[in-house]
Design brief:
Shape: elongated
Distance between the termini: 55 Å
Oligomer: single chain
CATH topology of the largest domain: Rossmann fold
Helix content: 40-55%
Strand order of the largest sheet: 7-6-8-9-10-12-13
CATH architecture of the largest domain: 3-Layer(aba) Sandwich
Order of helices and strands: HEHEHEHEEHEHEHEHHEHEHEEHHE
Amino acid sequence: MQFDRLERREFLTLVGGAAAAWPRAARAQQGTLPAIGILDLRSPEAMGDRLRAFRQGLAETGYVEGDNVAIVYRWAENNLDRVPELAADLVGRRVALIYAGGSTNVVLAAKAATATIPVLFAVPEDPVRLGLVTSLARPGGNLTGINFFSTELIAKQLSFLHEMVPRASRIAVFVNPLNVASMEAIERDAPPAARALGLQLEMLRASNSREIDAGFATFAGAPPDALFVATDGFFSSRRVQLVQQAAHHRVAALYSGREYAEIGGLMSYASNIADAFRQGGVYAGRILKGAKPADLPVVQSSKIELVINHQTARMLGLTVPQTLLVAADEVIE
């Protein structure tokens, strides 16, 4: 078998790269690397950008998956009933820490599963009110993480939606009844904010794909003037369905995450979740280096962004006010 010079160089590069990867793969399989357990309500298909951000945060502290740290993934595929079993599996594997997300229920399940393994969370509600930590500055137990503001933003979200559709008076709001803490926070905080703007809210509860479709089906008889989709891991995983249904019914909608606007949703106002995951990766790296969750303050996500899809606005026959264009962090043309 003969190689010309270029083929030989490419062959040696391929073999050398593979040889370098073998020790890393072997160490990971033999369990010699510290392991991070990722416990999430969603499926991996919905988490690409967020996982990249988490790995970026790990890299900032010197950890690379498959090199000096392993990551064990446990996806609930939007089935909350599976979460306790998945959490127990990670505890049984003696992972170095658990990163829990997608729903407050997932974090609570991880908390119930272990009082010793560090648990990192990413939640949209006040973690003190949820009973996850004793205080933001001094968490005090085996949990800490990221509080990406969501329910605290409800008044501003409704204000932006009202500014985009000034004639609106009746707003439909999608909430997930299985995400009890988030739903209760929205049902508590949204009505006063709506009354201040002269808006009437109609809560649509959905925890599966069929219930989302059923919620939109109510638009046929009495369509709302606009739609608001609350922060929820399940909704994020069904964002294509939500955006397509909103387009089908030609309803102006504001979402809790830029990933909706990126695929055609009218607008979003929320914390930058990818940045929250990056911060989670940084904290994971610090814990691997010996930091205790009790001593790591809960990070308050500070990157909050307004994203407007100008093309979708035009399709809906909306003229985006100049005030919103100026306020927007990004306008998708």
